[in-house]
């Protein structure tokens, strides 16, 4: 039976005793869902898997989102994206995920993202220490830490999340190889609107659902008031007491809950310090389905 070892921090836990080359038993998958609801980030260490294993494991959680550009996916499993700074014949083999600042993947889609699942194939090191940490912030704890009057003010407010705003910010950074999105690509990722607060479908806890990467405007407020409130929320949610850092090791499978967290990949490695990750991004349509919740005994 797998065992859960919490980090002791505000979020995060290690799952011992799983081999992801084999299909999960229903009881083990239900345990993972409950642990994800409690800890928000789960590390499954010591894995030696192929792309199809990552795809099959990830698909248990929901629909896997494809790439907007149609590039940088594994040839043996198109649902598996490649994150890397490695060049082959002068061309990148994957998309660089570090240096993107704080964000929540897929908040820019009408159906929100549920989990990211990353497998560490190659981790850069310097002086024996791993580089390219991923830092997380707990948006359940961030909500709990808000003044009750502000919690009440946020109820009923919505924010617009825009993928292209984020893409352009990343594209114009020094050294970026990103091309502008074509009109067709932009049409695949139109802005989406979500409430600033949500009730988590597994834990039942209230979550502050906005992030500096994609949330650009509170629609019920004027532009200046919206900007001021978003800046206040962003400063609040990134306080050190809400954070935890994952230090990568080859063979780690890390899954984290987009509904409950923000994340930031640290770009502290150079072009010759190679990093290679495989990734599946899973959407949240299934986890909000009452039938899914009843089946896995997760209804609050």
Automatic annotation (TrEMBL):
It holds the Pfam family TauD. SUPFAM superfamilies: Clavaminate synthase-like. Keywords: Dioxygenase, Iron, Metal-binding, Oxidoreductase. One of its GO terms (molecular function) is dioxygenase activity. Coiled coil: none annotated. Belongs to the TfdA dioxygenase family. This is Taurine dioxygenase. It comes from Paracraurococcus ruber. The lineage of its organism: Bacteria, Pseudomonadati, Pseudomonadota, Alphaproteobacteria, Acetobacterales.
């Amino acid at each position: 039976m797998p065992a859960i070892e919490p980090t002791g921090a505000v979020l995060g836990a290690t799952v011992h005793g799983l081999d992801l080359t084999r299909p999960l038993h229903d009881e083990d998958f239900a345990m993972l869902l409950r642990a994800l609801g409690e800890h928000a980030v789960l590390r499954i260490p010591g894995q030696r898997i192929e792309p199809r294993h990552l795809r099959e494991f990830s698909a248990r959680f929901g629909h896997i989102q494809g790439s907007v550009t149609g590039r940088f996916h594994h040839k043996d499993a198109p649902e598996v994206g490649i994150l890397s700074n490695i060049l082959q014949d002068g061309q990148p083999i994957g998309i660089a995920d570090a240096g993107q600042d704080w964000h929540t993947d897929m908040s820019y889609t009408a159906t929100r993202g549920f989990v990211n699942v990353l497998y560490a194939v190659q981790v850069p090191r310097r002086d024996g220490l791993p580089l390219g940490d991923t830092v997380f912030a707990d948006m359940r704890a961030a909500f709990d830490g808000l003044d009750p009057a502000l919690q009440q003010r946020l109820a009923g407010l919505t924010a617009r999340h825009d993928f292209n705003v984020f893409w352009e910010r990343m594209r114009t950074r020094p050294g970026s190889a990103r091309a502008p999105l074509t009109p067709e690509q932009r049409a695949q990722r139109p802005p989406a609107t979500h409430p600033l607060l949500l009730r988590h479908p597994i834990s039942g806890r209230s979550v502050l659902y906005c992030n500096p990467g994609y949330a650009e405007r509170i629609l019920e407020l004027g532009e200046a008031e919206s900007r001021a409130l978003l800046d206040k929320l962003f400063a609040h949610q990134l306080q050190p007491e809400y954070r935890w850092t994952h230090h990568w090791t080859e063979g780690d499978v890390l899954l984290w809950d987009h509904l409950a967290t923000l994340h930031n990949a640290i770009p502290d490695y150079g072009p010759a310090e190679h990093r290679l990750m495989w990734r599946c991004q899973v959407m949240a349509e299934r986890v909000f389905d009452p039938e899914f919740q009843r089946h896995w005994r997760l209804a609050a």
